[in-house]
Amino acid sequence: MDRTLQQRARATRRALLEAAASLFAERGYAGTSVNDISTRSGRTSGSVYFHYASKEGVALAVVQDRFATWPDLSARYADETVPPLDRLVALSYDIAHALSGDPVTRAGARLWAERETVNTALPDPFALWTAAATRLLAQARSTGHLAPHVHPARTARTLVRAFFGLCSLTEALEGAATVPDRLTDWWHLTLPSLQPAPLPPTAPGEAPRGA
Amino acid sequence: MDRTLQQRARATRRALLEAAASLFAERGYAGTSVNDISTRSGRTSGSVYFHYASKEGVALAVVQDRFATWPDLSARYADETVPPLDRLVALSYDIAHALSGDPVTRAGARLWAERETVNTALPDPFALWTAAATRLLAQARSTGHLAPHVHPARTARTLVRAFFGLCSLTEALEGAATVPDRLTDWWHLTLPSLQPAPLPPTAPGEAPRGA
């Protein structure tokens, strides 16, 4: 009995969160009311206040939910049969895809961009990406797949910020469909600096590599 | 006589634009009223309407003004005695500095971030940076200072977006004072891919270049 009530409460919380996320992603924080969340979710306004206390509370839950989905993604990127830098690149395409298509991820990014209009402190949504990238770079280092001058934590921080700027400006200026191509351009510029062992010396009579 | 009136009108327009820029940078578009612009500039609200027609009109002028200051900057970066990639790097630090400290540049960036709340189409504020970066990369190519696989326009687009993400996220997460250090981290990752001729083959007995 308790169990059924708990399940129903969880389903309501989730329906409210998803309705709010799609509204925040489309209209922004200021453009979304508790009433809109109620209408889109098919729940009452009272249930928004009951489960999240306020519109700020829902916004906070939406940003935190982005974090909650990370253990799943991380598990996938814990596959140690794949070289760590390959997992890092694959992860970036997955996140770019979520930023373009997943309402909760989109809402999290938009709420963060509009954080000055939200009346509560939002957690840094980049902390988990940075932690995941740091872990992969550290693995690359310990398996000899990282250029020796690359510092995992510092480089992860740089990569995440540049990556996020690239994805969000590309979507704003050219639309979401071009993001994967621009991401490829960016990796072409960035990946060589992460990889160890530059071109080997060319022996006389041998064609130079890359020619 | 006409001349004096024109000068006075120009001074008023400028005072209104600078007052509006500092308010937009601090409080955002929605948080700034025509009345606030009038108060801060010491001009009447009527003069805002007379010179810019509306709050949207002032916002548009602020974003366009960022463009207007570019010919000065570009002139400085037309100094062909300095290698083009060095000028590109120097330019990036100057823009990062303006993004942290110049009210009109800050206002332009914030208005662009909040463009969905502004009731008028704003020009792409990145077009001129991209054009400047493209020109410098093309010069680097024609003077043999660019890696052969680097396409100037495509690479300029990638660099500007990643650069802007890096600066704006760094400022948001760590404050403006850390931006130059993070920019240096980013150039360490990015510049090697732009430079031509990796280390030449080391002949036996010869010291490797860069050692």
Automatic annotation (TrEMBL), chains A, B:
It comes from the Bacteria. Residues 10-70 form the HTH tetR-type domain. This is ScbR family autoregulator-binding transcription factor. SUPFAM superfamilies: Homeodomain-like (SSF46689), Tetracyclin repressor-like, C-terminal domain (SSF48498). Keywords: DNA-binding, Transcription, Transcription regulation. InterPro entries: ArpA-like (IPR047923), CprB_TetR_C (IPR054126), Homeodomain-like_sf (IPR009057), HTH-type_TetR-like_transc_reg (IPR050109), HTH_TetR (IPR001647), Tet_transcr_reg_TetR-rel_C_sf (IPR036271). Residues 33-52 bind DNA. Gene3D superfamilies: Tetracycline Repressor, domain 2.
